[in-house]
Structures are given as structure tokens and as C-alpha cells.
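retry 2 of 3: previous attempt timed out while embedding adenosine-5'-diphosphate. Reduced batch size to 1 and resubmitted. Inputs unchanged:
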Amino acid sequence: MGMLEAEDRTDLLVAAFERLTDARPTVFGRAPGRVNLMGEHTDYNAGLVLPVALPHGTRAAARARDDGRVRLLSLQQDDAFVGDLADRGPGGPTGWTGYAAGVLWALSREGLPVPGVDLVVDSTVPLGAGLSSSAALECAVGAAVLGLLERPVVGATAELLVRAGITAEREVVGAPTGGMDQAVSVHGTADHALLIDFEDERRRSVPLQLTERGLALLVTDTRVSHALVDGGYGSRRDDCEEAARLLGVPSLRKATLEQVEGLDDDRLRRRARHVVTEIDRVTATVAALETDDREALARLTADSHASMRQDFEISCPELDAAVAAAVGAGALGARMTGGGFGGSAVAWVPTERVDRVVTAIDDSFAEAGFRSPQHLLATPSAGAAWTPVVG
Ligand code: ADP
Ligand code: MG
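retry 2 succeeded.
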């Protein structure tokens, strides 16, 4: 099984756009998926996260219409959306078009003069793999609209794009996500991870220097879809809120490990312990990267996976197998990443061992009778942008 490449599919995208409209697009919006290196289920607990923007992303080809109509098409889905600007908000389209139409709605609610539009999207991020194809879709669509309005994705406009993606996902699609995905899809930079503190929304780019260190970030999509267990994410959120309420703190960010260990309810104690220790692991991971302390990096990564498996209970046999096989074949460390219940694992792998690790994971999946996984290299990449179509 080869690597999933972040290929350039401009020709396919433009051809589909021309079939839909008999015209060429005037702008391309683009936004990446992401892989989180540390800090799972911490964003909605006012905690820390450390994601990286992937080279894999979503592109949106767009052209304004002067009749206020909206047509949305995806090369990854069969159903299209055709409607008016007015039908875009909550209670509007369901399914994938909710993410895209929801962004148009959210941007106009922010006061932007969003025009009617023909829009076609195409993605190299696998859907539902825990690599945030949803934020890539939202931010690519939003970036395309900003392109139509000739507003560069910088400063306050970049913040507006992050908010519009979050609003679409929370209020239109109804997915209670925490905000990490859109932030890194917009603010990711090449060669860096993005440290985000959700207590005060502060962000800082952390240099990864993977090439200099001779390391690669190998992502393995188990192809177990987390959508199958809808509700797991929300129930973890509820547990965290309940634990914070019992401890009398505004969020688990404000709880100490000692306080958490005093919770009577075993489930809530373990949920809260994951969050509190995971937030500390983000800070420690940044420190380990800054001092090139590989032993610490390895330990923190292993501890994070164990915490998600045992305390937060969001892993699954496929993720555990990918992590064990990666470490067994010489990865420095590996952990599940994303919301859990399937999705992907991420491993820090010395470059010369990538092939060996990939083979070991594939073999262990074959032996266990799991579906073949899919791998990709997470070369840290830039966030959302738009470009005019030339010619
Ligand atoms: P993840 O963000 O981890 O990939 P989600 O369940 O949050 O998983 O989002 C996946 C959903 O996003 C898909 O089921 C689909 O509705 C929508 N989606 C993402 N990318 C695309 C795309 N390129 N075309 C159409 N829909 C997409
Ligand atoms: Mg998502």
C-alpha cells in the first residue's frame, strides 16, 4: 500500500467546474486538513493543542453569480446543493452541503457582502479520517468567497474565516467541535506546529525542523469511520462539563490533578484525568521539541495514547494496533490523533525507518483481519489562502 499523496488535481477541478457552469472559475480557495500532535479533547476544556496543517487539503473553484443563486458540487460526494443565498443557515441544507452553505451563511452574518456563487470542491484529505476534512472544506469555501471579494486571508479577515468555519460546523451542521481544526486550517505554517491556548485564544508557531532532525510524521488512517459512533464525542464533552461542575471550576483547565483524583465517580475521574494530564503533555511536548529531548517526546507520546485508551476510552483495536506496530518497528512514538473512535494515528518516525514502519502496520492489520490502512506523510504546510485564476 503506497502513500496517499497531496496531488495537484487542478485539471479535474476545473473540468468539473466547466461542466457545471460552462464557464471558468475566477478564484481558487484552498485550505489544509490537519493532524494533531498532542492535546486531544482539550480545546473545549480551555486547554492546549499542538496541531500541524497537512500538505493535503481541499480546493474550491468559484465564480460569482449575479442572481443570488448558490450551486455547490463536490468531487467527493454525489448530492449537489442548488438554492438561494437565503436558504443557507440552520435548518437549511443537511449532509455535506451544510458545511459549505453554512460558511456562506456565517460570512454574510459577519457582515460580508457574500454574492451568489457557483462552487466546486475537491479534496485530498480523506473524509471522516480524523484529519479534519470538515474544516478543510469550510475554510476552502470561505477562502474562495474571500477571493471573490478580493480580501486577503490575513489579520482580522483570517479570524473571520476561522469563526465562519466554526459557526458552520456548530450551528448549521450541529457538530459540537472545539475550534482547533479551523484555527490550524487557517493559521498553519510550513515547518511548524501551531500551539493554541484555548483559555485566551493565543497562538504560537513551534518550529518542528523535521528535516534537520531526520524525522517524519507518519499518519495512518485506519479507515474505521468515527461517524459510525456519532455521539461519542458529545458524551465525552458532557462528562468533562459534569466533572468541572462537580469540582466547582469553570473548565477542566482550572482543575489540578489532585482535585481530579478526589472525584468519586470513576468514569468522570478518568475523563478529567485525561484532560488535565493531556494539557500538561502539550506544554511538555513543546519543551521536548525545543530541547530536542527525544526520550521525553517518546514518553509523552506513549503516555498520551495510554491516557486516551484507558482514561478517555476513545481508542479502538485498529488504532491500538497501528500504534503498537509503529513503535515495534522503530517509531520514536505513536498515538491516536483526532476525536477518536477510529480515524488516524500519528507516529514520529526516523526518516530511514518510514518504509519499515509502514510495512509493519500493514502486516499487523492483515494479520488481525482489519481493512488495509492508508498512510500519508504530514509535512507541515501552510494554512488557507485564495488565488485568482489566470488565463
Ligand atoms: P473529519 O473532519 O475528521 O474528516 P468529519 O465527520 O468532521 O470528519 O467531517 C467529514 C464530513 O465532512 C463528510 O462526511 C462530508 O459531509 C464533509 N466533507 C469533508 N470534505 C468534503 C468534500 N471534499 N466534499 C464533500 N463533503 C466533504
Ligand atoms: Mg471534522
